[in-house]
Design a protein that fits this description.
The protein is of the alpha/beta class. The protein folds into 3 domains: 217 residues, FAD/NAD(P)-binding domain (3-Layer(bba) Sandwich), CATH 3.50.50.60; 111 residues, FAD/NAD(P)-binding domain, CATH 3.50.50.60; 105 residues, FAD/NAD-linked reductase, C-terminal dimerisation domain (Enolase-like, domain 1), CATH 3.30.390. The chain contains 14 helices and 22 strands. The longest helix is centred in the first third of the chain and has 25 residues. Bound molecules: flavin-adenine dinucleotide and nicotinamide-adenine-dinucleotide.
Length: 467
Amino acid sequence: MQYDVVVIGSGPGGYVAAIRCGQLGLKTAIIEKYSTLGGTCLNVGCIPSKALLDSSEHYHNANKHFAEHGINLSNLKVDLKQMIKRKNGVVEQTTGGITFLMKKNKVTTYQGVGSFVDKNTIKITKDDKTTEEITTKNVIIATGSKPASLPFITIDKKRIITSTEALNLTEVPKHLVLIGGGVIGLELGSVYARLGAKVTVIEYLDSIIPTMDKGLGKELQKSLKNLGFEFLLSHKVTGASVKGKTVTVTAEDTKGNPVKVEGDYCLVAVGRTAYTEGLNLDAVGIKLEERGKKVPVNEHLETPVAGIYAIGDVIRGAMLAHKAEEEGVYVAELIAGQKPHINYNLIPGVVYTWPEVASVGATEEQLKNDGIKYKAGSFPFKASGRARASMDTEGFVKVLADAGTDEILGVHMIGPRVADMIAEAVVGMEYRASAEDIARICHAHPTFTESFKEAALAATGNRAIHI
Ligand code: FAD
Ligand code: NAD
């Protein structure tokens, strides 16, 4: 079979690329080694983690906050089996939706491992080891990533686990030890903390979510402490071992003093690594980048071999589903002869804890490092009527604007529903809005979004109305 485009990998990068190729009239195939489409994000990432975050948040609210709302419950219990079953149902529905979209867009789906025979020939090896070859003018590598570990830790997938196993536990841990205070650790740690686990975070750097604006990590740490998290920051993990049902994690503080933490589960969440196993890149002469072992691409997401492109987690940049999706559309349109564009500065980052955390553009630390003069305006949710009504008063919105031109350079939020609120900042910044522009736009009352307007007012010279 001869195709215009063969996509290897069906995560949000690959399946979106395939749909866009189909829409553009390109004869397209997608190869996925697993039996369901959707990749990490739909099967063991974004979607199942958000399903569990929502369920556990309902329980937490019922347990801790309903009484204050005047709703009294008795015999409240967690049915983890049902929670996981519902999560699996959400995953099934979502991955099934991708199968439908492939058919709708006339994309042929192959199940098996895709590997290069040469730049125009891809071999598909099925589970039963039978093979089939297809030929193509273009290939999009979208093989994603897998959990990283530490060289001295063996992940037994029972007690020392990755995010994949953490999404399918059969009991609520008594004490979950998290290695890594990044996005995965804090999201999945929140799920189990809300369900009653003690959670200890051991983080190498001096703050949690260390790549985001420092103010956000500090604020989130306060909220998570209230939820029962403990933090060992600036601690280097040195080992983890299992004996019976006990996991012992060892670490060192900055002075080299040893620390030992015992729990019943340990989640290793120290990042993810690009996944290229089985692709047989040697056949086409593509050498992985030294740092991160990622597939090298130029500014058009083309590898050193013409006609072979790569997108998503397997290449440089943020490991985010929406980044992969943008790149999928970009490459499809490029192959179809269009001139697409991605603004990498405006890819938002979101952490789905409660309060949620969301960010776009430059952090205060980056602006300081780059010597850019800026003004900052903040607005706390405790001053928002909407937030008081829903008892979600933790957090703030911070707007950073150029000191001279007033152009918004960065927006950092922690609070209720900021995962959705950040979209307004992205739109504004895409159109190069000034803080004054946002300050003069009418926001419905009472909404959480008013806090963005108030922060913009604060950034333009202390004009916030409600503080
Ligand atoms: P992937 O989704 O990893 O898909 C790659 C696919 O390629 C896989 O299905 C794999 O089986 C397949 N494959 C690999 N090699 C081959 C081969 N040789 N032949 C055939 N198939 C192959 N991001 C967000 O933006 N928001 C979130 O809320 C979020 N939450 C997350 C929560 C967790 C627990 C995790 C682990 C990740 C989360 N992410 C989130 C990150 C997000 O999942 C990834 O950034 C995204 O899935 C990357 O998409 P991708 O298409 O590049 O690769
Ligand atoms: P991460 O990079 O977000 O966090 C890893 C953390 O582990 C960092 O804070 C790092 O300093 C720390 N660390 C590294 N080595 C350590 C050590 N030896 N001891 C202690 N701490 C150590 O990675 P993650 O949380 O594993 O997530 C992986 C990827 O998945 C991320 O790139 C993220 O973008 C993506 N993801 C995104 C979302 C979302 O968008 N909401 C959710 C989950 C995952």
